[in-house]
């Protein structure tokens, strides 16, 4: 179950940014979709620690087990909360960063299924599922600019003529028959007639 949850966290969390970007202009109840992703991901991540403690209870003394699991959990959360916004998002963008963390979770699931293959009955199936998820996420990672461009064509009524991401903002310029518009981070900043 721990491996299955790890794969689900990687799948759902990894694709969350791409799905949210595409759903934003289409869905009337976008907040429900956003909160749904947050709740599902939170529940799955919350299940990992009790399952991990249950798996390791016979191998490590309980007081050492609790301190080690929570220590690594807090260190991992601290590193991820620093690396995500300060290093990865400015250089990879939101979609690629989300997919990157998803691929990390899926890779951990694949490794665990491989490492414990003698103890797990469905190890081959779990490894195969992890490999399929990794391939699909890698393809989405490669085509993330296309996903972003598609979401922008859905978001703006006019034709997108230029889009660029810097480490600080997303710049989008659209044009219709009469005027040119500049959007910074989704907000209209400038509008000019031809």
In short:
This protein has 194 residues and is α+β, with helices and mostly antiparallel strands.
Q: Largest sheet at a glance?
A: 4 strands, antiparallel
Average pLDDT: 88
Helical residue percent band = 55-70%
- From N to C, what is the helix and strand string? HHHHHHEEEE
What sort of overall outline do the alpha carbons produce when their principal axes are compared? elongated
What gyration radius follows from the Cα positions, in whole Å? Answer: 21 Å
Q: Number of DSSP helices?
A: 6
Proportion in β-strands: 5-15%
What strand order characterises the main sheet? 1-2-3-4
Secondary structure tally: strands: 4
- Look at the helices and sheets and give the structural class: alpha+beta
- Poorly predicted residue ranges: none
In whole angstroms, the N-to-C terminal distance is 60 Å
Question: How would you characterize this protein structure?
Answer:
It contains six helices and four strands, in the order ααααααββββ. It is of the alpha+beta class and 194 residues long. The protein has a four-stranded antiparallel β-sheet with strand order 1-2-3-4, with helices on one face. A hairpin with a 2-residue loop joins β3 and β4. The chain starts with a helix and ends with a strand.
